[in-house]
């Protein structure tokens, strides 16, 4: 997959770059902070960022060097799926989430994905706002998807190709 391109409308103090094993400490800490008991383990994170068909990027604060966000995409040869987008609380509201989503959508377009799919908690209003303002549509509700909380998820889709 391609390297992360530069984004001209990105927050000036944030750089989007590919994630590596060197980022695992920061990723593990952010996962626990953002997702609590639903956080991915270090081993799962390592498999994800290096797995076939996966493309993971981080948002790095250029002044501090701190990783302030991360996002991942999986491509199966036709559709792409947003695996995760996470932003540190102090970076939320600064456009970092949109920057990361734009990076994922750019990669999906380069891969010639037909659609971009995702699942998001029904109670995650900031994420729903982000995805809907990027053009995603809600397809349906998946019952009890997020465990152990047993919270429902919206399945969503952004069409990248026109269907006949």
Protein architecture, described:
The chain has helices spanning 24-35, 42-50, 96-110, 125-133, and strands spanning 14-18, 54-61, 67-75, 80-87, 115-121, 137-146, 151-159. The chain is α+β, with helices and mostly antiparallel strands and 164 residues long. It has a single domain, classed as Gcn5-related N-acetyltransferase (GNAT) (Aminopeptidase). The chain has a 7-stranded mixed β-sheet with strand order 1-2-3-4-5-7-6, with helices on both faces. A hairpin with a 5-residue loop joins β2 and β3 (67-75). The longest helix is centred in the middle third of the chain and has 15 residues, at 96-110. Mean pLDDT is 87; it is low at 1-8.
% residues in beta strands:
25-35%
CATH C-level class? Alpha Beta
- List unreliable stretches of 5+ residues: 1-8
Assigned CATH architecture: 3-Layer(aba) Sandwich
Gross morphology is: globular
Tell me the strand order in the biggest sheet. Answer: 1-2-3-4-5-7-6
Our Rg estimate from Cα atoms comes to 15 Å
Can you tell me the CATH topology? Aminopeptidase
Q: Topology as H/E string? A: EHHEEEHEHEE
Secondary structure: number of strands? 7
Q: Please, what is the average pLDDT?
A: 87
Keyword list:
single chain; alpha+beta; Aminopeptidase; 4 helices
List the SSEs and their pairings.
Blueprint: E1 14-18, H1 24-35, H2 42-50, E2 54-61, E3 67-75, E4 80-87, H3 96-110, E5 115-121, H4 125-133, E6 137-146, E7 151-159
Parallel strand pairs: 4-5
Antiparallel strand pairs: 1-2, 2-3, 3-4, 5-7, 6-7
């Amino acid at each position: 997959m391609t390297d992360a391109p530069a984004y001209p409308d990105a927050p000036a103090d944030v750089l989007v770059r590919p994630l590596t094993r060197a980022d695992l400490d920061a990723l593990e800490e952010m996962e626990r902070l953002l997702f609590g008991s639903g956080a991915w383990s270090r081993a799962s994170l390592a498999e994800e960022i290096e797995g076939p068909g996966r493309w993971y990027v981080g948002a790095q604060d250029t002044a501090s060097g701190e990783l302030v966000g991360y996002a991942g995409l999986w491509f199966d040869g036709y559709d792409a799926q947003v695996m995760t987008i996470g932003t540190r609380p102090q970076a939320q509201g600064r456009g970092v989430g949109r920057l990361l989503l734009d990076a994922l959508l750019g990669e999906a377009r380069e891969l010639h994905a037909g659609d971009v799919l995702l699942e998001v908690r029904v109670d995650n209003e900031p994420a729903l706002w982000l995805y809907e303002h990027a053009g995603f549509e809600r397809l349906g509700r998946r019952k009890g998807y997020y465990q152990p909380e047993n919270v429902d998820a919206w399945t969503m889709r952004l069409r990248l190709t026109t269907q006949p």
